[in-house]
Amino acid sequence: MCSVDSDICRRAFRRFVLPACLVVAAVGASAQSVPSPLPPEVEAALSRARLPRDALSVLVADAQDGRVPARLAHRAQEPVNPASVMKLVTTFAALDQLGPAYTWKTPVYIDGVVQGGSLKGDVYIQGQGDPTLVMERLWLLLRRLQGQGIQVIVGDIVLDRTAFEVPEHDPARFDGEPLRPYNAAPDALLLNFKSVSMGFVPDAAAGIARIQYDPPLAGVQRQGSVPLAAPGAECGDWRASLRAELTDPSRAAFQGVYPAACGERVWPVAYADPPGFAARAVEGMWREMGGKLTGSVRQGKVPAGLRPAFSTTSLTLAEVVRDVNKFSNNVMAQHVFLTLALQKNGVATFDGAREALRQWWQGRWGDVPMPVADNGAGLSREARISAQALGRMLQTAWTSPVMPELVASLPIVGVDGTLRRSKSRAGTAHLKTGSLRDVMAVAGYVHGASGRRYVLVAMVNHTGAAAARPALDALIDWTARDQ
Fold it and tell me: I need a surface site. Which of 149, 192, 407, 414 has the fewest CB within 10 A?
């Protein structure tokens, strides 16, 4: 053996030992090393939650330098269900390929002659995947149609939804909750997430709560008010107290009461007949705006050669990604995912989107095992990714030109989005959350006390995963305390 102070040893160190150390460092950053011990506070939190160590997959690594060994790697190579954390893959892929300024167009065609405020012919609205066509923007679209001099349509309004070829969707299949808006299926002409917002406004003098429905749906009977609960009744589970009957597409009724203590509340509900929602919403809005329609609103395809009269433009992809990640919007995430295929193939299918993702992933990271993305939203029992693979992607994203847009889209711990109630130290991290039955996850970036930035990926797959939140909070705090 020789002393490292000798010239010979220094040269040998530079020639042989240092390169070997760099290799080990690179391997460590990819979580190839022996699993690290979990921090004591994380172990304690898991124990209190009665969760085994092997329920957790975790990687904590430097955000900027992939050659630096990971601070923590535990079961990081195991593919697990990430729940909505999968949205990070979808949104970064879209930002990277389409650009933050990408927008969706919805062209409107007029096939006929306009005279004296009447159109003798048909109007075509062609959906191309805009995930932001909420009620207000539908109103603006129809207002622009009226700006073409049209108040009466002596014909039909035809909805062209052929840009998406997606399978039939049962909104109850995933979790038996068909009226939850998060179970809405993607649609080339997605209007208001196929959901109705019911607003309840108590009037103590009249003894009722008035109900407002947005958007108005043609042909649906709507109960205009509901009695108030007895004076002094607490708000509590006000939705259950209404005893709503919402499974009939032709009517909305309530057999219960509304507690005045709740004040004004809004209840968004997925429409009971999702395929019929767009037609009812367009006709209902058109008639409420004073427009007349002698025909019907029906499905169809824009005739070849017809040129659009105008187009509406969506919010930018950067703004859409913010809604997707801050509030974990599933149907918007699926639209972003399907748009990867739409841009490549001219029509959107889930198979096409998965192939577009595969090509992008392999072009970026080669042999790093790619995710099983399924529908791109994480609302899936089949989706899989390892902490190592997701961590590698997040390291690349940190040095990407679209890093600011991606990071700004993530919930801030203890401040907003799905992390506003987090018990971790407020403002220390930007993280996407994920939760399903048997899954709890977070992934993103943690800001260390030293000024360094870390990638954190932590995913719990276990029947008791719902109890894992304190362990994840402890892990976030441990990562932030890096001094």
Answer: 149
Q: Please state, in angstroms and as integers, the Cα–Cα distance from residue 268 to each residue in 2, 11, 199, 283, 412, following that order.
A: 74, 70, 9, 20, 25
The backbone region for 45, taken as left when phi is positive above 0, alpha when psi lies in -120 to 50, beta otherwise, is: alpha
| The Cα angle at residue 128 between residues 123 and 134, in degrees rounded to 5 | 80
Q: Quick check: 350 and 358 in contact, CB under 8 A? A: no
- Identify residue 397 by its one-letter amino acid code: A
CATH architecture entry for 104-314: 3-Layer(bba) Sandwich (3.50)
Kindly tell me the sign of the dihedral angle through the C-alpha atoms of 373, 377, 382, 387: positive
Residue type for position 58? V
Structural domain boundaries of the chain?
Answer: 28-101+317-480, 104-314
Asked if 23 and 33 touch (Cβ cutoff 8 Å), the reply is: no
Q: pLDDT tens for residues 392-430?
A: 999 999 999 999 999 999 999 999 999 998 888 888 999
Would you place residue 325 in the very low, low, confident or very high pLDDT band (cuts 50, 70, 90)? very high
What tokens appear for 293 in the block?
């329609």
Q: What is the pTM assigned to this prediction?
A: 0.90
CATH topology of domain 28-101+317-480: Beta-lactamase (3.40.710)
- Distance between CA atoms of 161 and 167, rounded to whole angstroms? 13
From CA 112, how far away is CA 120, in angstroms rounded? 5
Average pLDDT over residues 282-286: 98
